[in-house]
Amino acid sequence: MLEGIKAILEQPNQRTKEELRDLALLAVMYDTGARVQEIADICVNDVRLTPPSTIKLTGKGKKSRIVPLMNRTTAILHQYMDRLGLSVSSVSTNPLFVNRECDRLTRSGIAYILTKYVELARNVESEQIPAKVTPHTLRHSRAMHLLQSGVNLVYIRDLLGHSNIKTTEIYARADSDMKRAALENASPPIIQNEAPVWQENNDLLKWLQSLGNAK
Questions:
Q1: How far apart are CA 55 and CA 57, in angstroms?
Q2: Distance, CA of 194 to CA of 150 (rounded, Å)
Q3: Do residues 167 and 157 make contact, with C-beta atoms less than 8 angstroms apart?
Q4: 215 residues of the chain, pLDDT tens digit each
Q5: Could you tell me if 57 and 161 are in contact, meaning their C-beta atoms sit under 8 angstroms apart?
Q6: How far apart are CA 3 and CA 32, in angstroms?
Q7: How many CB atoms lie within 10 A of CB 215?
Q8: Does residue 81 lie within any of the structural domains?
Q9: Is residue 200 part of a domain?
Q10: Is 35 annotated as catalytic?
């Protein structure tokens, strides 16, 4: 799915304010592994672009967490906020991502934007794009990619805003299942599932047993 994510993020052309917004939105969604409602709730003053660049996400139970931003995402956000005039203090409490009416994007609006670029990416990398891609797919993919890169589950838990490490362990089990499937597909059938034919021959088994009893 990593190549699929790359293909999706390559679709917005950045020539218009709307597509620059879409690129910033998708980059933040994947980079932070945020829930779709957390993305919708981000305000301008939740973003820190000076090193170390971070973004504040407010999740379930109004619990907030600070998530680091990667350099590429920081650069995209910098460009987006400057172009839309979001770098001034007078708009610090405004929503970070808005629609054409300057209203905060809704969950369905975010899903619509993602689907738009998924379909464009599918025309380029059809084999890399799953049949169904939702905002949660980006969250799940980010967690899996971090896990496969060797990032500790505790850090992934904090990034995703899970209150319990057991919730995050779901990704570890999923990764284990995928590795098992890959190994099974790549391994020759050395160990047979079925018993050898001779084990079903009662006369032969009795004869072998008599050899073992002979003195």
A1: 6
A2: 38
A3: yes
A4: 788 999 999 999 888 999 999 999 999 999 999 999 999 999 999 999 999 999 999 988 889 999 999 999 999 999 999 999 999 999 999 999 999 999 999 999 999 999 999 999 999 887 889 889 999 999 988 888 888 888 888 888 888 888 776 766 666 665 555 445 544 555 455 444 454 554 556 666 666 666 656 55
A5: yes
A6: 18
A7: 2
A8: yes
A9: no
A10: yes
Q: What is the domain count for the chain?
A: 1
Number of CB atoms found within 10 A of residue 41's CB: 20
Nearest to 22, CA basis, from 148, 82, 111, 103: 111
> What is the rounded CA–CA span in Å between residue 77 and residue 82?
8
What are the tokens at 34? 């945020």
171 is catalytic: yes
What tokens were used for 15? 């020539």
Picking from 134, 98, 128, 97, the residue whose alpha carbon sits closest to that of residue 114 is 134
**Structural domain includes residue 43:** yes
> What is the domain extent for residue 38?
2-185
Which of 35, 122, 142, 157 is catalytic? The answer is: 35
Please check whether residue 167 lies inside any domain of the structure. yes
Tokens of 92: 């610090």
Q: Which of 6, 63, 136, 180 is catalytic?
A: 136
Catalytic residue among 21, 122, 157, 162: 162
Q: Identify whether 139 is a catalytic site residue.
A: yes
Indicate which residue of 21, 122, 139, 157 is catalytic: 139
CATH number at residue 174: 1.10.443.10
> Global pTM?
0.78
Active-site entry in 17, 60, 72, 166? 60
